[in-house]
């Protein structure tokens, strides 16, 4: 899918504006605080996701006009034509072609993947970052994923309360068993797809990267449902001792290896950053493969930590994919951007007229 145009009113520091985007690669440049991330966030919201920084959609309303709501509109084309309209503030709603819709159905019709600077530590960062990575992919390729994950989190919270009170947790095990095994199976499928996708981006990788999904607290039985029951049984005493649930997707991770070594040890810092970019592109590849729809990529400041060669390879990989890309950078350090450059100043966005003489934009 492609975002043909978008418009917003009363969104953070952005001036009300309608923008006609390029269907290829869009690069937003501008000083710190100019509104680049906010612009990317409007596209994230129009494609059915939440705010980047806060869980509350009301935080999107311009501080200077808090009593007004934030309105956004987007026209999307590609596999189908869709007009999205959202209202955020005291109430939040999203509509598709004039009919009230829900955020998860918009996500699967207009698949978009956003990667923020923190995602550059996918290889060497905490397991929670890798779980978020799996969740983003799964939420796109499995329509029920987000709601089942929420149900699972709710059951885990209930289990925590029961453990803290020293009460029997049997009822929560029964609720969790089908949810946990389904989430594990979804994550395994997603990681297999990502592994296949990585082979399309060899230039970003210093060696073959292998991924293995690790089930939280698992005793290693192959069938996920049986694994859940056996793991719960084996860890019963430990759970009672520590009073927290020890089995489930909240403790999953991805082991990343290159040859017989752990990728976080084998790759240099720069190579870990490049490999993280490869993982982002492989995620988009997986989504396209599964949904048969071209994803929209939203990339905020991901070039900042790459060296010149890394940035070159990233731009080459992006231009070879025929996905619509929205990238932002404050450092103007991407040479020869093969697409449209937009300048962001005080919340206003304009197509750049600065010539790029093959050097810095
Ligand atoms: N609800 C809001 N109302 C008005 N302004 C806001 C609101 N939320 C954030 N801002 C302001 O928007 C400005 C632009 O933020 P944004 O993160 O988009 O900048 P940026 O161009 O991405 O900068 P950087 O290069 O530092 O990442 C910030 O200075 C922030 O104070
Ligand atoms: Mg920013």
Describe the structure.
This protein is an alpha/beta fold. It folds into two domains: 1-111 and 293-361, 3-Layer(aba) Sandwich (Rossmann fold), CATH 3.40.50; 121-289, Glutathione S-transferase Yfyf (Class Pi), Chain A, domain 2. It is built from ten helices and 15 strands. The protein has helices spanning 36-46, 103-109, 127-141, 145-164, 170-198, 224-234, 236-242, 263-266, 269-291, 308-319, and strands at 2-9, 17-20, 25-30, 70-77, 82-88, 93-96, 99-101, 112-115, 209-214, 253-258, 261-262, 296-300, 324-329, 340-345, 348-351. The strands form three sheets. A six-stranded antiparallel beta sheet has the order 2-1-4-5-6-7. Strand 6 (93-96) and strand 7 (99-101) form a beta hairpin. Helix 4 (145-164) packs across helix 5 and helix 9 packs parallel to helix 10 (308-319). The radius of gyration is 22 Å and the shape is globular. The two termini are 28 Å apart. It binds adenosine-5'-triphosphate and magnesium ion. Residues 36-37, 300-301 line the site of magnesium ion.
